[in-house]
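Forwarding these from the shared drive since the link keeps breaking.
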Amino acid sequence: MTENLKAFLDAKVAQYNRPEFIENDPVTIPHMFSQKQDIEIMGFWAATLAWGQRVTIIKKCKELIVLMDGAPYDFIINHEEPDLKKLLQFKHRTFNDVDTLYFIAFFRQHYERFESLEDAFIPEDGAYSPFRGLGGFRSYFFSLPDFPHRTKKHVSSPSQKSTCKRLNMFLRWMVRKDDNGVDFGIWNRIKPDDLICPLDLHVDRVSRKLNLITRKQTDWQTAVELTERLRELDPNDPVKYDFALFGLGIEERWGVQF
């Protein structure tokens, strides 16, 4: 059964882990850039805003890029106070101008100290684990004085029992390395086998249909359970199967009740 499942999912990974996947997915946003910091900034922002229809997510991210003069990293590092006024118009669902300005403030203080956003996920002792890395990132993200409490809902943590779908998706984009052109693989301190599979509605539904998940609720432990099962299929790169599970769910409509 495991061999049959692996063969089936490997074929689906090959089907969906292709450059053609990029255009209609939020990952298209960081693919608009070549500079590492631009990729990180807009990758993080695209993942954060990734709820709702993909067409709308992509549209809103492109709007945000225009508001930052087409150069997010340069804008964040070099902007002056009057430059921020135009960002007061930005809104996507519950993400508003308050959140936007705090994201810019966080990025500025981080990139004044570090070359890469990867540093924000690495514990001080250098011993990365998904639970410590994501939990530590949230604490660090909200370490600026007078951070807006409302913004905390946009950055999750395993300690809240959240699946941390958006953060795990962002980490997949930055960490996974292959020659297929979708994921960037520009980070080296976090390894592909450290990743947790992003668990959204589509992946959850398909995973249950394939008996990859037995846990009744959907939370952090469920994402860990799924990843452990996927690790049995590929211990070095378990999260590559996100392509298969997501593709089966959103493109092939597996598990949808008609």
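-- next protein --
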Amino acid sequence: MPRSFSMRGVQGAADRAVQHAWSWMLETAPGSRVHDVQEDPRFQHRGVDLLWELPSGEVRGIEVKGDRQTRRRYWFELVSNVEKDTPGCFLYSGADLLVYVFLSQAELHVLPLKDVREWFLPRAKAYALKQTSTKTGAIRYTTVGAVVPCHEVLEAVPSVLHVPLKRRAGKKAEAEEVSSEKETSETVPLAPTGTDSE
């Protein structure tokens, strides 16, 4: 039986993941600019959430995933909507980088999608497939993904970056984090909370 969750329940986690990704990009390349294209239909269908405009003029497409699970495992979406038979973001995304934020561990992983896909696809059958059910309004749909231990990807794909996040200081910030976690933990998804639209 697939686990289920509501889009409202995970939106806070997705927003925080985007904020962490945004901060990392600006710190990594001072003088760069980040453009939020999550609501832009031209980029939604390409699996791109943010555009990272580097000082050199190069523009990179970024997909962001926020994960609240305590285990360090990636969830690579292979089928985004079983009912409509649509491919998952891991397969179709035109993003250059997948920024995967583990919120519970305060870790940010930067996965060059091309490199990770090339490593994963020949080995796909070795990993368990898991389903999750998402409800948006009256519509419910099923998503399928592969669960892949982070250490296997980090060891096999040298271009993947692992970045510890700075914890927010102060009791007020801690209280906000705890409150936000409680608010979004009614039903914890097996899948990470992405920023994709169905």
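The chain has six helices and twelve strands. Residues 7-28 form the longest helix (22 residues).

- D.
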